[in-house]
Specification:
By secondary structure, the protein is mainly alpha-helical. It is about 45% helix and about 5% strand. Strands 1-2 form a two-stranded antiparallel ribbon. The mean pLDDT is about 85. GO terms for molecular function: transferase activity. It comes from Klebsiella pneumoniae.
Length: about 140
């Protein structure tokens, strides 16, 4: 896929440990360069994070739960309208704004998957803020 927001995914992968450190994010953590020069690779670095779609979905469910707990602990809340608007926004952003429509069926599927992930994140947050989840006590 060349569109949909997944390519190119510029992530720091090769680095000298003394010059970089990870930020404190529990989900989608990234490296802080601490002033070091970042040089992009001229080619692509293949990074397969999951063996199959089921593994990908399991990872997304885990990330969504951690994301929601992190936001809940910071006092963030959402509503049913927020769940709907963020989910629709994620779908439209992937399909239209990021050009997922140009990736054909795969782009459409990725837009649906991104919307599903967003729905799960905000539903988890809603459940935590309304006392419908046991994750808060663990």
């Amino acid at each position: 896929m060349r569109h949909s927001g997944w390519y190119p995914d510029r992530v720091l992968r090769l680095y000298e440990r003394a010059r970089y450190r990870y930020n404190d994010n529990l989900v989608h953590e990234s490296l802080d360069s601490l002033g070091a020069e970042v040089i992009p690779l001229t080619g692509d670095l293949l990074h397969l994070t999951c063996r199959d779609f089921a593994g990908f979905q399991q990872k997304q469910l885990a990330y969504a739960a951690v994301w929601a707990l992190e936001r809940h602990q910071k006092g963030k809340k959402t509503s049913m309208a927020g769940i709907f608007s963020h989910t629709l926004g994620a779908f439209l952003k992937t399909l239209l704004l990021r050009g997922g429509v140009l990736d054909g069926k795969q782009g459409w599927l990725l837009a649906v998957v991104n919307a599903q992930y967003t729905f799960t994140k905000y539903t988890e947050l809603w459940a935590l803020s309304h006392g419908y989840s046991e994750k808060e006590s663990s």
